[in-house]
Amino acid sequence: MAAVGTPQKESPSIALPGLARALMSVGKLSQKSAEDIYKKSQTSRTNFIAELTGSNTITPSDLAHTVSAIFGAPLVDISAIDPLRIPKELLDAKLCQAYKVVALNKRNNRLIVATADPTDQEAAEKIKFTTQMGVDWIIAEHDKLIKLIDATSKSVSETLDTITSGGDFEFDDIPVEEASESNEAATTEVEDAPIVKFLHKMLLDAFNMRASDLHFEPYEHHYRVRFRIDGELREIASPPIAIKEKLASRIKVISRLDISEKRVPQDGRMKLKVGPDRVIDFRVSTLPTLFGEKIVIRILDPSSAKLGIDALGYEPEEKERLLHAIGRPYGMILVTGPTGSGKTVSLYTCLNLLNKPGVNIATAEDPSEINLPGVNQVNVNEKAGLTFATALKAFLRQDPDIIMVGEIRDLETADISIKAAQTGHLVLSTLHTNDAPTTLTRMRNMGIAPFNIASSVILITAQRLARRLCPNCKAPADIPHETLLEAGYREEEIDGSWVTYKPVGCSACNNGYKGRVGIYQVMPVSEETQRIILRDGSALEIAEQARLEGVRSLRESGLHKAKIGLTSLEEVLAVTNE
């Protein structure tokens, strides 16, 4: 027994990390090499894997293959993944940097996380605690993983102060009203390089990720940037709250808005030049909120109107009805649906088909979102007295063949539009209603006489946009028979000859979805429907008559899209009502 007070000699063994012990067990690393590399990593305060691969003991590729074989985890070529496709909302960027991991996807209540070291229990526990989800590791080569982490972190706000290069893009001047003196004087105040480059980065990221809108939102203690991608808002960045004033000022200056006015909403436009012959258009809207100005930027894509009617997702019979209506010499065609349902693209697709040298087309919009050469486009300016009704009156003195009204908002606009449709003009417009039959009763409630509605409206299209399933990763969904019946399928349809699909998620899509597809209810106004309108019938009567004439409801149209595998049943139920 050792004497009291005499120190006992401890064993010199080192507690090696789990990865080192795993490599030693398969003969890839000796005990001495493992201890030496571990000591170096501790001394230099670097990652064990970084020291291991940097010492030429084992290559990153060999290490990844060995680890994958030892732990039976799948191996992924992380360099093939586009950094812009990484879902940034799944895992905090600082955590990814600290533990050298990337969350690639979510399946049920588990995260799919790429790592070079699946033995890192601290990382696993931290991810579980932060996200309240389980972790499924997949193996990636360490050097490629680091590059991906660096690439993804550059597009979030943590690197706001480290952005140093401007890139090959600049803002274009827009032929709008002259900027006020206060704007010009303030321009130098907001030429803050990190702010300018952060805004450029956000706009380019949004365009590359096929976002339709950017939301810049100030709150009491934080600030966030969200993109609407395929109809779904996703948080992209959380820049410091201190930048909110400078960022708002920068956006307002380049949109030719009054930066000194922060009490009322403002609307503007801007362009971003991203190459010698490529310009992106943006529509800007500001809104005073409790903790600062919220700014929403809509990305306007002129090419969307030139995709053609087939790209919009009309079924053959729906397409035939629409083409027949726009081929008529006069009458009114109405497109209905909520904000963001693709009404403008549908109208401009029709205008593009009608846009010929022998046709005079005039449009009144608030504002014009898509520039279409050959079409005379007018921006409504209510402050200056140029309303939809005023523009329409002017159009009728301009010898038009086709008139497009951005939205019928009041009785005066509706009345002039109907008179134009009754006097030899084809009129296209939009209304905010839930479906085609209720559009007719909505017009009646606005004060339009039933005989005017019956004699002018020739077709109504109601539409929604549903997220399109990714063709690369969608999987058959096992949906119970009763659920299909509750959704709206008829008993005879559920014959086992088809299956619905569900989203899975892969590197090429956003949580199982990629792009959007239209769901349509295309209802021609037949003679029998006109009779119902003339006797002031209800929307239910009109809907029943439309069903007898073979017109699908929005729900039925969506169920058909799910049946042929374009979207999921849950998406159809989310965007349609029955």
Structure description:
With 578 residues, the chain is of the alpha/beta class. The chain is 36% helix and 22% strand. It has 21 helices and 19 strands. It has helices at 18-25, 31-44, 48-54, 60-71, 93-99, 121-131, 142-153, 181-187, 193-208, 244-254, 316-326, 343-354, 388-395, 411-422, 436-445, 450-456, 481-487, 527-534, 539-548, 554-563, 569-575, and strands spanning 102-107, 110-115, 134-139, 170-172, 211-218, 223-229, 232-237, 266-275, 278-289, 292-300, 331-336, 361-365, 376-379, 402-405, 426-431, 457-469, 475-476, 501-502, 513-524. The chain has a seven-stranded antiparallel β-sheet with strand order 4-8-9-10-5-6-7, covered by helices on one side. Strands 13-12-14-15-11-16-19 form a seven-stranded mixed β-sheet, sandwiched between helices. A hairpin with a 4-residue loop joins β5 (211-218) and β6 (223-229). The chain is elongated. The N and C termini lie far apart (85 Å). The relative contact order is 0.07.
